[in-house]
Sequence to fold (507 residues):
Amino acid sequence: MTFLEVKNLSVKFPDFKALEGISFSAEEGKITAIIGPNGAGKTVLFRALLGVLPYEGEIIWHKKPTLGYVPQRLEFDRTFPLTVKELLLLKTKWPNFWLPKESALKEVVNSLNHTRAGHLLDKRVGKLSGGELQRVLIAYAIFGQSDFLLFDEPLSGIDIEGEMTIYGLIKHLAKELNLTVLFISHDLNIVSEYADSVICLNKKLFCSGVPEKILTPEQLKALYGAPITFYLHKHEEPVKHHHS
Amino acid sequence: MTVFPSFIFQMISPTVFFVGVVVALSASLLGVFVVGRRMALISDALSHVALPGLAAGLLLGFDPFLGALAVLFFSVLIISSIERQGILSFETLVGIFFTAALAIGLLIIPEEHLLESLFGDIAKIGYLEILETALLGFLILFFIVFFFREFSKITFSSDLAWGEGLNVNRLNLAFLLLLALSVAMGIKIIGALLMGALIILPASAAKNAAGSLKGLTLLSIIFGLISVFVGLFLAGAFQLPPGPMVVMVSAAIFGLSLFVRKA
Fold:
């Protein structure tokens, strides 16, 4: 079933066009990757979907979405004494922040457990490591029965637990919770490994379809304007970069 | 009413008590976000912006409080709209506005009112001021409580806030207006110059001592209330001006908080 349908979407800023006539759809329960060069309008597309940017064209949700969003690089004040529990409770109705109901607390723990972050409940967000923060942010995104997740380029390098990468976790959660996922990525290995379908964007829609069809040298050259050497390694673990 | 010795009540009348509670509550609650967002000097700067409005009121014979309120309100609107053009930073604009406003204020304010405008005098407040303080105070408290989650999210990370569809620009403007209102409210009580201190000090002390946002908020409120009451009491007992005394107590609490730092 189609969850999201975007028809002829354009976003214009005073001095330039960020997106021009984009059309695509996202299937329920599937993971769709968005690829494209820098400045292609990927984040702009997210902002339009989140309803914080004015746009022309149509964004049709075939059922009412509960959106969860994980930003690209979360800039925040590490000295602000917010705890992980409090962060998630900020998403609930306001008395819960001060006097959380049993049910609300249970849901907080449940979300954190889904991303293997249950033990971080009372930790301050400013004191989390990179991998812990990623897990907490994903828990925050799925908290409140989210059914449609937007990931703005999750850091590919972070192993969240042993060998499982953040993408492995996303894929696992999508299946377990029947989430529809849209993620932005630069890493074509990751896209081929984890995405059910791919959208290539460079202000206009260049191509869309299953990774095997999209990630061909010809398509990529058209998208990036230069030959991209890329080989599908179907059964290998994607290359990991360690940033820690 | 036997908890406190009666002489305290002679020095702190019920009206002063009430006004003190309202001012302390709104200032210390706003302070949580002011300090969290590292915009401490902005509340201070805004307090100077109020001066020309006060002066105009005193000169032309209308309520100086309304003058201050109007000047603050329009300054915040103008600063925000220039900021959105993206050429000058918010801090720069506030800096320009506050120095210009201070200059205008000092030029036109009648000299005999200068000290009172700068440092306030809670002992001299009348029923009109009490009414104004109550109205503004409840307005500020209502907005802060109602938008607590939104302000918390923006304070923590504006990236996350807009990702949830919050209108960050509009909420930022609302926050600045609340800050301007609280400055106007505090003028009569502890004075334009010192209101900024009552916003920043209790929250800063609380931030040193708190391990959670809930703790930060509750401690900030407690420190704010203690500052106002102990400050007023000491001012009454030693015949000193109340505004500076309130700030001194607040600063002392901050000093003590340095010893229990958690951050």
Observations:
- The longest strand of chain A covers residues 2-12.
